Amino acid sequence: MPAAEADKRARGIGALAQDTLWCFSQVKGTIEIGATEADIISTVEFNHTGELLATGDKGGRVVIFQREQESKNQVHRRGEYNVYSTFQSHEPEFDYLKSLEIEEKINKIRWLPQQNAAYFLLSTNDKTVKLWKVSERDKRPEGYNLKDEEGRLRDPATITTLRVPVLRPMDLMVEATPRRVFANAHTYHINSISVNSDYETYMSADDLRINLWNFEITNQSFNIVDIKPANMEELTEVITAAEFHPHHCNTFVYSSSKGTIRLCDMRASALCDRHTKFFEEPEDPSNRSFFSEIISSISDVKFSHSGRYIMTRDYLTVKVWDLNMENRPIETYQVHDYLRSKLCSLYENDCIFDKFECVWNGSDSVIMTGSYNNFFRMFDRNTKRDVTLEASRENSKPRAILKPRKVCVGGKRRKDEISVDSLDFSKKILHTAWHPSENIIAVAATNNLYIFQDKVN
Amino acid sequence: MMLSKGLKRKREEEEEEEPEKEALAVDTWWLDPRLPAVAQAPPAVPSNSLLDLSVLKLHHSLRQSEPDLRHLVLLVNTLRRIQASMEPEATLPSVPSPPEAPGVAADSLLASSDAALSASMASLLEDLSHIEGLSQAPQPLVDEGPPGRPSGGAPPGLGALDLLGPATGCLLDDELKGLFEDIDTSMYDSELWAPASEGLKPGPEDGPGKEEGLELDEAQLDYLLDVLVGTQALERPPGPGR
């Protein structure tokens, strides 16, 4: 479509971060302070239509929420998300050879585009990827010839007549079944999975290698990136995230602990150790410190929906890169620059190693990422305005408008501001998700899932 | 208990004795609530507490049954940076960094067997403690820094390191070192490095004064020259499973 048209539509869908009023919609999860560690949400993902919202937790469980149909009577209330299916995706395992326990924590969930009545998703822990089929059953066949009502086999000799089984309605049942298990392909910890636009393959990335899988084949995978040095003593860099291009099935990117991004083309060679493009911003000498490398480590990389840009998250910033410009990002947004002078204490308490994710809105006009104190930030790429919001129980009245928050960096603190030293670093928003086409966001705050929507006028 | 008390004293002394290190105050502001929070000026020389902290973290990370590789790599790279900046301008003829230099550190991360891991860990700690022992006065130092005993006598207050036995007392005695090489010290270490044990480093501030520091200087220089000339064995025998 002509550029002007695309622009108009983008402005309509995305709206402006500042002009958008975000309201509390729902919160899922326990309120008690003594919630177990197993309940900590470790990944959040909308499916391609936004009808379903999946979460994974440290206990290896997946919970899927489904948006209820909007009723014509309640126009002011958008469809709410209710539990659709809950299942145990991964169990803790023990690797007897290495005498190690393999955590059941779900690192990532990725949905497959819907091709029939069932829903399919990939979920992964540190070592094993599983393909789950989630399907509905609302009818039950009755009147088998060889089985009785309880399912016991009948003696064929007693059968004198034949009948055709009929389908009778039953209470809706949602079943999740593991259709494929992709195991034993990763020596190191899986940090990313990404479904290819061909819908036939996907990749899984660990600290040193990236493997390409065909959905139908579980007993082998192709290794497409291997950065393990011949001599492990020379290891200085690991892979931190990877993703396929949304449209070009031969292209993918992966990020590193040194703040670099490599774009690879699978047509170039079987093993994509040589990148096609290399994205790195030169270090700012005025900001140099002993922690420079740690804070430059990229924790997440995401293609824009258009496929023209990539967004990366490091400890203090979010950057947008144009695929056609490798030497620096086109946009840099400060998430919480007031932490720059606190790096030493954040190093001491290990917070400096926290891995924050970042997301695009449906029209690629606004980006969002999390911070501490249950704060999360949105940046409007067009207006260059940003906002800080908080996911907390205090702001949890239905349709209550979220008030922008501000962190006071020095000097006098205004009434509504919070000082840097009062921030709660145990309350971190690492995982967020944005509905593919509407202004609905899901924010994971430890063991609670908040859903916010923009105000419907 | 004793170790952490020692550390506290050392820190206060550090602040008293070295008031000119304004930059370091920034690093340690979070340790002393009395200090006002100042804007960060990146310190040219890292504080010893930063080095301690990093070594402690590395040790803790290595103790995990399956260390987080990213965490480990970032820690080691940071530690290398700290070590590198603690070395002054070399007055010696340029010493090519021995290939084992990163290996000593990386080895300890990435060795797969427990025995190799603990042997490497011990050697890494030896190296770092050696560097810390010299850090009080600027001294030329080979990157790997094969453990050498300061000829001025072991600085007092070695504390925990003494307990490791061969780590400090008889470093030059290959035979003795060899004896202890394949002993699994991981359990031993873990008791020592329990949360309270921050007294990882010897207390150079408690120890020799400036003059003695200079003596160490020359002794170390001699040793290093010997190493370069090849009269001293540089390599340690590799640990089992490496």
TrEMBL record, chain A:
<dbReference type="GO" id="GO:0019888">
    <property type="term" value="F:protein phosphatase regulator activity"/>
</dbReference>
<dbReference type="InterPro" id="IPR018067">
    <property type="entry name" value="PP2A_PR55_CS"/>
</dbReference>
<keyword id="KW-0677">Repeat</keyword>
<dbReference type="InterPro" id="IPR036322">
    <property type="entry name" value="WD40_repeat_dom_sf"/>
</dbReference>
<dbReference type="InterPro" id="IPR015943">
    <property type="entry name" value="WD40/YVTN_repeat-like_dom_sf"/>
</dbReference>
<comment type="similarity">
    <text>Belongs to the phosphatase 2A regulatory subunit B family.</text>
</comment>
<dbReference type="InterPro" id="IPR000009">
    <property type="entry name" value="PP2A_PR55"/>
</dbReference>
<dbReference type="InterPro" id="IPR001680">
    <property type="entry name" value="WD40_rpt"/>
</dbReference>
<keyword id="KW-0853">WD repeat</keyword>
<dbReference type="GO" id="GO:0000159">
    <property type="term" value="C:protein phosphatase type 2A complex"/>
</dbReference>
<protein>
    <recommendedName>
        <fullName>Serine/threonine-protein phosphatase 2A 55 kDa regulatory subunit B</fullName>
    </recommendedName>
</protein>
UniProtKB/TrEMBL annotation, chain B:
<protein>
    <submittedName>
        <fullName>SERTA domain-containing protein 1</fullName>
    </submittedName>
</protein>
<dbReference type="InterPro" id="IPR009263">
    <property type="entry name" value="SERTA_dom"/>
</dbReference>
<dbReference type="GO" id="GO:0005634">
    <property type="term" value="C:nucleus"/>
</dbReference>
<dbReference type="Pfam" id="PF06031">
    <property type="entry name" value="SERTA"/>
</dbReference>
<feature type="region of interest" description="Disordered">
    <location>
        <begin position="137"/>
        <end position="160"/>
    </location>
</feature>
<feature type="region of interest" description="Disordered">
    <location>
        <begin position="1"/>
        <end position="24"/>
    </location>
</feature>
<feature type="domain" description="SERTA">
    <location>
        <begin position="43"/>
        <end position="90"/>
    </location>
</feature>
<dbReference type="InterPro" id="IPR052262">
    <property type="entry name" value="E2F-SERTA_domain_protein"/>
</dbReference>
